[in-house]
Amino acid sequence: MELIMQFSIARMSCGGCVKAITAAIVSIDANAKVEADTVSKQVTVETSASRDDVLKALDTAGYPAA
């Protein structure tokens, strides 16, 4: 089951950040869809992974999310 989640990531400021965040999420769900907006610092994720797993992956990648 795919879930749509939204996160606020204060440290996301550029395309490199978006690539790292996307890679972190795809590492736990290869089929995840990630949309990021560096201006609002919002990331929308469509994934079958749990919210806790996504938060842990982002934290490990150095992009803690709220």
From TrEMBL:
Family matches, as InterPro entries: HMA_dom (IPR006121), HMA_dom_sf (IPR036163)
Every HMA domain range: 3-66
Residues of the signal peptide: none
Name recorded for this polypeptide: Heavy-metal-associated domain-containing protein
Species of origin: Brevundimonas terrae
